[in-house]
Amino acid sequence: MFNIDQRSSTPIYQQLVQEIKEAILRGALQPGDKLPSVRDLASRLTINPNTIQKSYQELERQKVIETLRGKGTFVCLDYQAREDKEKMRELKENLRKTLVEAHYLGLDQERIVKLVRQLMQELGIGEGLE
Amino acid sequence: MFNIDQRSSTPIYQQLVQEIKEAILRGALQPGDKLPSVRDLASRLTINPNTIQKSYQELERQKVIETLRGKGTFVCLDYQAREDKEKMRELKENLRKTLVEAHYLGLDQERIVKLVRQLMQELGIGEGLE
Amino acid sequence: MFNIDQRSSTPIYQQLVQEIKEAILRGALQPGDKLPSVRDLASRLTINPNTIQKSYQELERQKVIETLRGKGTFVCLDYQAREDKEKMRELKENLRKTLVEAHYLGLDQERIVKLVRQLMQELGIGEGLE
Amino acid sequence: MFNIDQRSSTPIYQQLVQEIKEAILRGALQPGDKLPSVRDLASRLTINPNTIQKSYQELERQKVIETLRGKGTFVCLDYQAREDKEKMRELKENLRKTLVEAHYLGLDQERIVKLVRQLMQELGIGEGLE
DNA sequence: GTGGTCTAGACCACA
DNA sequence: GTGGTCTAGACCACG
User: Fold this and answer.
1) Number of H helices, E strands in chain B
2) If exposure means fewest CB atoms within 10 Å of the residue's CB, which of A23, A55, B68, C57 is most exposed?
3) Nearest Cα to Cα of residue C24 among C61, C70, C51, C59
4) How far is the CA of C83 from the C1' of F3 (A)?
5) How far apart are CA D68 and CA D53, in angstroms?
6) Which residues of D touch B12 (CB under 8 A)?
7) Any idea where the domains of chain A sit in the sequence?
8) CA distance between the termini of chain D
9) What residues in chain A have per-residue pLDDT under 70?
10) pLDDT tens digits, residue range C51-76?
């Protein structure tokens, strides 16, 4: 289901956030779909329920999923990107960092753009959200 | 000199590594140039010397700079991009993550590629190292 | 009829209590009026009957409505505001919390008072119950 | 220091968030001040460190406090209210609820406004943030 | 059944 | 020293 690397240095809960967002992006999870319950996912991934909980809450803060009390957690029907200057700044910073790394690995402009396009295709990024 | 954000969630030593690599990339630091001493930089940036030290060690490990005992620390003359599958894997992972974020911020394919090209130009990334 | 938001973080049964009290306040429900039966309301709002039941019990506890066995549930004819130090304490606590939030949203004294007066007018709060 | 009621039904971490915001509002905590460390506050309030942590992280998300890695947590120097339609909606909802309660406790328009003004004075709410 | 909160205790990275 | 993450296990409110 979701691909978690226990040995990775990036926190498990962040990995899960990322995995779920990707799953939604590529359509494996559709708007309105029910996510596995905290306990269920925890036992399947052999991860502590609190950790799953943290991921779900983070996704809820980002308005990607929503919880209906007593019923479970669901992919939002109406996700819409909101202008967020802070996040945009962070995005650029991350991208800078990544591009510098790419350069030091010997990739030139064209190979980088090619890689970006390839990854976008894998992820299913097309013409925006709206 | 170097742009450090104490509040950022990315560790200071990593920010500094990043800043130095960028300075080399855009030519502000040339191969063979001497870097400021640990103490000097620490006092100028009002950062703990141990933190500067950690950055220099990391850059040395990456063969970007080298220390000549008693003389100081210098930008390597002969940086060679090496094939590094592990780093390549990390790079792709970071890029995936960044692209997913970009999508959720509402950017479409074209705007992302545009942003990538713009940042590469700012950084001075051209036709590769070799 | 009643406005329930399944996604809200406040429990459904509490939302319903609130809605019914508001309906009485603005006169949509008059003293002596019959409330819909639990089953009826449950099916109309697509909410679990237990939840409706809980709301009615809470309102009965507060002496806002009363149940006549075999006949149904009715808005009390003779609601009397009672001095209740515990509830008064809670009220102040809630108000404090709300006012702090308002401040952190950038509202100043005058805008807050204006908002309070506006809401009271909408709700139909005038010169007290007695 | 901070007033926490272990028996209250509102979560401890939320109470603490509220208490800290009030302390800043009335000037007991000034912009730039260091907050007690997680462990310190935990032992003083005899509350689990994780709970304190949760409060601090919530406040950080709200840009009320910020953490400097390895140094501690500090009241933000530059808090500024941001337009947030979602929060504004919530605020009005809370206020409605509170006003309805006030009415059912027998308070009329004038007594409510008086109470609001009194609480704002106690809290130190004046002419807005800027 | 669901998610939300809390405790106890552990380990880690950062400065 | 600081905060950040994770586990284990418990209890609660809600529907």
Assistant:
1) 5, 2
2) B68
3) C59
4) 47
5) 14
6) 69
7) 12-75, 85-123
8) 28
9) 128-130
10) 999 999 999 999 999 999 999 999 99
